[in-house]
Amino acid sequence: MTTIITDEPKGYDRARELKAFDETKSGVKGLVDAGISEIPRIFVQESVDKTDKNPMTQFSIPVIDLGRIAHDPIQRQRIADQVREASEKWGFFQVVNHGIPVDVLEEMKEGVRRFYEQDEEVKKEYYTRDITRKLVYNSNFDLYTASVANWRDTFFCYMAPNPPKPEELPEACRDILIAYSNQVMNLGHLLFEILSESLGLRPDRLKEMDCAKGLVAICHYYPPCPQPELTMGTTKHTDNDFLTVLLQDQIGRLQVLGDDGEWFDVPPIPGALVVNVGDLLQLMTNDKFKSVEHKVLANKAGPRISVACFFGKSFQPSEKLFGPIRELLSEDKPPLYKETTITEYLAYFKEHGLDGTSPLRHFKL
User: Fold this and answer.
1) Rounded to whole angstroms, how far apart are CA atoms 226 and 224?
2) 3-state DSSP of the chain
3) How many C-beta atoms lie closer than 10 Å to residue 73's C-beta?
4) CA geometry: angle at 65 spanning 63 and 68, to 5°?
5) Domain that holds residue 324
6) Residue 153 is part of a domain; what is its CATH number?
7) Which end of the chain has fewer beta carbons closer than 10 Å to its terminal beta carbon, N or C?
8) What is the pLDDT of residues 253-305, one digit of tens each?
9) Does the N-terminal peptide bond of residue 161 adopt cis geometry, omega within 30 degrees of 0?
10) Is there a domain that residue 313 lies in?
11) Residue 2 lies in a domain
């Protein structure tokens, strides 16, 4: 069994500790199961940017009710206006009455829990850093490139446009992962229609640009941390997609950066889903919609479970160019970004990982 170095010796060898941690194939949960009382050096941040003592609860991202949207044109326009305002000001909003039954949401969270809490030897069969696999389970996708590791384990799988065969998915969450992904795809099509309308475009404009073609389900498990003040569940970042639909459990701990530089909580609402604009949608809307930095605080209560569904072709090799949508440009509103391929964008993101800097800056004109 590989030994994890938890103290910082003279001549500390970070690369050695990263390799030792990775080779256990047990992730952060393995550390907790082993009963550690101090977190390994690879997880310790020199300065933990936290809003823990005085959370910004006076701010709240909009909660948008999608009920009756299909049967009431006036309500649909009202919702489009709300989505536009939220996407411009916050980059985040929550949706209720979105059409996905509560029991499906709950079973999805339980499916993720079953995967991570199953027999370790069964789980290890899925542990890999080969991102071409149909399902990839590991701890910290950027373990070897980031300056510090985050206190979480993750598995993700490509659910569209070429979903895995059922037998390629873990038995612990197979059925619910397929069912939930299908429901999120339906919701995504509706959201892209509303986003298009909120921009003054045809309802199918974003969909015809393949924004809703790809879906990746990213399932996080944040074990309880013995020293949450020293690390982060997920360091600050923006999402490298068009749109994200997030299912979070009752623990919360998700925070979003406001205009004034303060962090504020995104409180869990039973039955709600969190929706946020990704980098590629900000690029395509020429900064009209905002891809906003967010993070997850480590916690002692845990485990925290979340499922982030990323929409976009960002995980499918493609030479198609994406740039600001021409209908949104004018002499007074010239393009702010150069056109880029998903391949180029992802290559830059992979090289830098979650370094706290938006990749969009690299593509500014």
Assistant:
1) 7
2) CCCCCCCCCCCCCHHHHHHHHHHHCCHHHHHHHCCCCCCCHHHCCCCCCCCCCCCCCCCCCCEEECCCCCCCHHHHHHHHHHHHHHHHHCCEEEEECCCCCHHHHHHHHHHHHHHHCCCHHHHHCCECCCCCCCEEEECCCCCCCCCCCCCCEEEEEEEECCCCCHHHCCCCCHHHHHHHHHHHHHHHHHHHHHHHHHCCCCCCHHHHCCCCCCEEEEEEEECCCCCHHHCEEEEEECCCCCEEEEEECCCCCEEEECCCCCEEECCCCCCCEEEEECHHHHHHCCCCCCCCCEEEECCCCCCEEEEEEEECCCCCCCCCEECCCHHHCCCCCCCCECCEEHHHHHHHHHHHCCCCCCHHHHHEC
3) 9
4) 170
5) 14-46+55-363
6) 2.60.120.330
7) N
8) 999 999 888 999 999 999 999 999 999 999 999 999 999 999 999 999 889 99
9) yes
10) yes
11) no
pLDDT digits (tens, 9 = 90+) for 302-339: 899 999 999 986 556 677 889 999 999 999 999 999 99
User: Which strands make up the sheet holding 243-248, listed edge to edge?
Assistant: 63-65, 92-96, 273-277, 243-248, 304-311, 215-222, 153-160, 135-138
- Pair of tokens at residue 251: 């623990």
Sign of the torsion formed by the C-alpha atoms of 107, 109, 112 and 117? negative
**pTM exceeding 0.70:** yes
Q: How far apart are CA 245 and CA 307, in angstroms?
A: 8
Residue 311, strand partner residues: 215, 243
Q: What's the token pair of residue 70?
A: 């299909």
**Residues sharing a CB contact under 8 Å with residue 133, sequence separation 6 or more, in sequence order:** none
Say if residues 243 and 211 touch (Cβ distance below 8 Å).
yes
In a domain, 9, yes or no: no
Q: Please indicate, yes or no, if residue 41 is contained in any of the structural domains.
A: yes
Integer Cα distance of 282 and 165 in angstroms: 33
Positive or negative CA dihedral for 127, 133, 135, 138?
positive
CA angle 43, 47, 52 (to 5 degrees): 90
Strand 321-322 versus strand 215-222 pairing type:
unpaired
| Number of domains into which the chain is organized | 1
